[in-house]
Amino acid sequence: MSKKRTAHIISHTHWDREWYLPYEKHHMLLIQLMDTLLHTLERDPEFKSFYLDGQTIILEDYLQVRPEKKEQLEAYIREGRIHIGPWYILQDAFLTSSEANLRNLQIGHQDAARYGTIAKVGYFPDTFGNMGQAPQILRQAGIDNAMFGRGVKPTGFNNTVSDSDYESSFSELLWEGPDGSRVLGILFANWYCNGMEVPTDEKEAKEYWERKLADAEKYASTGELLFMNGCDHQPIQQDLSEAIRTARELFPDTDFVHSNVADYLQAVNRSLDRELSVVKGELRSQRTDGWSTLVNTASARIYLKQMNQQGQALLEKVAEPLASFAHLLGKEYPHHLFTYAWKTLMQNHPHDSICGCSVDEVHREMVTRFDKSRHVAETIVDDSKRVIADAVDTSVFARMGAEARPLVVFNTTGWARTGVVTVELDAERLYFRDGFPLDEMSRRMQALDVSGRTLVDAEGRAVPFTMQDLGLQFGYDLPDDKFRQPYMCRRISLTFEAQNVPALGISAYAWLKPADPASLPAADAASLLNGDRVMENALLRVEIAEDGSLAVTDKQTGRTFRDLGVYENTGDIGNEYMYKQPNGETALTTKGLKADIRVVEDTPYRATVEIVHEWSVPASGDAVFEQEKRELVYFPHRQGQRVKDMVPLTIRTQVSLSRSGRGVELQVSFNNQAKDHRLRALFPTDVETAVHRADSIFEIATRDNEPAAEWENPSNAQHQQAFVDVSGAGAGLTIANLGLQEYEVLRDGRNTIAVTLLRSVSELGDWGLFPTPEAQCLGEHTVRMEIIPHSGDGSASGAFAEAYSFQIPWTVCQTGVHGGPIASGYAPYRWEGGALAFSSMKVSEASGDLMLRWFNMEAAGTELELHSARGAESVYKSNVLEEAGALVSEEPSLSLPVGPYEIVTLGVKRK
């Protein structure tokens, strides 16, 4: 007699907070669903459980409107009838940063723990591809499974397949991360709605279950069959208990159970009696035709990605390390403010939000959330940097000259850093409280002489700088113990190159009238320009051709990369999800288009050349395309073209090279007045290699230049975080970006890196016609990139560290002349670690301990050396949830082995 099969029916909802309806309209549907759920649980004891989509924000959203339901809701959670967590929101994995993915997990766990239970489920039901490091992250969080809907093509047990990186024999598989961590993977092979709307009528139920059971058995490796009873915003099936009774009567050979995720996973583990396929690394649907991977959401509404990059970097790479530094000096760490700022930011991280694939109202509200989160982060930064700056001993500047105006430069990256910074200083202030008439305050401030001053470092060396007099300015203080204090001031702006500021540390400077100008060592005032088309420093030479393209020579290798920075324009008759170039269209480029080239900056620390292309592109898609949209023609099958009418597209590129720069920085601005098109920047590498590397989540992923044989889409665009890199023997090229998360390595014989700067489309796409005129992204845009040539090893050469540092803004704070416990050049910690990349410095809310995190960029193990400037401390190895682990050291210095691709978190407890 064959073993009895079990049908696990799991009630759930997949809750997109916002998508084809604005947030509040989805919100109202959620209130209705939750009310119905509580009513169903109350009246029907056979309705055993409900999975709340793995995201605790649903609880917040519901209780915001229904606070009186909290006690009832909490009771069902504690009884195990409502399962919550482990995430705060269901994020898009590739478009949110490494640390944002962890904050999502940490805050989801914190919120769920308040209700007494946390569903330990690696839940990614509709994530648009899955990150390769997910198995390691989940394992570190105590989760041994992952349930997901995209990224793997299953074949079912009737087919014989060889195991590979992207294919599984069954819907159950082993998913292995690059470090070797494994979790049990459950692929929703029949999607996460394969058990929705179960009939109660016997005739309908018989036909339904015959089909559904066969569909599940086609892919399942055991007799434990999964049926997800719910879908996107699906109402609760209130008669499910009756439907299950009907099914039991019709199919006595099947055990129908109103199950839950934990019970189902336990049953699968118990029943496994055969070897599962091992799927390794990223799950990106590479073994498909390439038309439905949704990868081009990486370029939909790029302005959102830019705002997100700014918000993430400000929180995790500036505010958290500065607040941690200030905490070490005695300031309270503002956990509550960080949680609020992160939650507000993460409300923009669900796939239909950050992917830019919703209706226009959704994305308007996102802009406000980005601003709100940024304002909180900026407040934390301002408070923290003042505490640190006031603790710096700046008394040395009093001996160097008169009227010293000290300032402190903060490097919150994980590497020592040199770069150009700009700071606004108040040369003098007059407060309203001092009783001066306004006209006298204005007169005195405007009469102030700001000439005859210089900038010096803490060693008394003159630092080349430029000054802009900003004139009379109004300002105010907000003291902790007084009413607001308005003032008038004379403000100036200084720009200079800060040299070798230590990682996670500071350097002090002062703008002053030197006591003995002749005694100051002369600063290097040589220009970086050789004519108006050549820039050169000790490491790089940049030559600009008549068409504005760049030839960048790496002086250390002698390799020249040519034709960099050509712009490409094509039509796009796709949608917010996917790019589709019109059939037979030839791409337009600026290759050979004469540009207007002029020098706009020539200082001892930086040179900048502006390149202007006066270009024209087709105005929009044609009438055929408009008709195809109305008829819901599937985008790969569209025959539309672009119109013949042209509109201007003026592209203004500022190319900058700093004296100590390891890369060439590009700032590109344009006013988009065209519709239905894509704009990219091209960077030919001429490096022979079959693979490239792209920054992803705690990983620099290696990807093939050629897609799999099943791939039919002419485009092979992919996701990136901070950079993409093409390297070969003796030479490599890294292109870093700020919020430009789509690239493609072209199959053009030159391995050209193409970075998408803009994609303009007119509809949401997916399951109907949802016009999105604002997705055309008309108006002004500015993007930033950095060209970083290197010796062929981006990790060992420091190119990747440069690309990561490019993501992080400098922080500067004016302070006074005073003593203090720390000196210029101080950093609380110093570390070395070969191929390690620094990721985070923050304070744990649970323990109050300082948490430091790195990840290994390479496949070989390495050694982390950590040195504390604060003396002996207890250091323990933690995990991604920042829980205490094994003691590592109780000395000021430690050495710790780090495995291949390992994410390592250390907790520091002050003795």
Number of domains: 4
Residue-averaged pLDDT: 95
Approximately how much beta-strand content do the residues carry? 25-35%
Task: Determine the CATH superfamily of the largest domain.
Answer: Glycoside hydrolase 38, N terminal domain
The helix tally amounts to: 15
The CATH architecture name of the largest domain reads Alpha-Beta Barrel
Helical content class: 10-25%
Strand order of the largest sheet: 25-26-27-28-37-34-33-30-31
Q: What is the straight-line distance between the termini?
A: 66 Å
Radius of gyration: 29 Å
Q: So what's the CATH class of the largest domain?
A: Alpha Beta
Named CATH topology of the largest domain: 7-stranded beta/alpha barrel
Q: Which structural class do you get from the secondary structure elements?
A: alpha+beta
Main β-sheet description = 9 strands, antiparallel
How many E strands?
Answer: 46
Global geometry: globular
Family: Belongs to the glycosyl hydrolase 38 family.
InterPro entries: Gal_mutarotase_sf_dom (IPR011013), GH38_beta-1 (IPR041509), GH38_C (IPR041147), Glyco_hydro/deAcase_b/a-brl (IPR011330), Glyco_hydro_38_C (IPR011682), Glyco_hydro_38_cen (IPR015341), Glyco_hydro_38_cen_sf (IPR037094), Glyco_hydro_38_N (IPR000602)
Pfam families: Alpha-mann_mid (PF09261), Glyco_hydro38C2 (PF17677), Glyco_hydro_38 (PF18438), Glyco_hydro_38C (PF07748), Glyco_hydro_38N (PF01074)
Protein name: Alpha-mannosidase
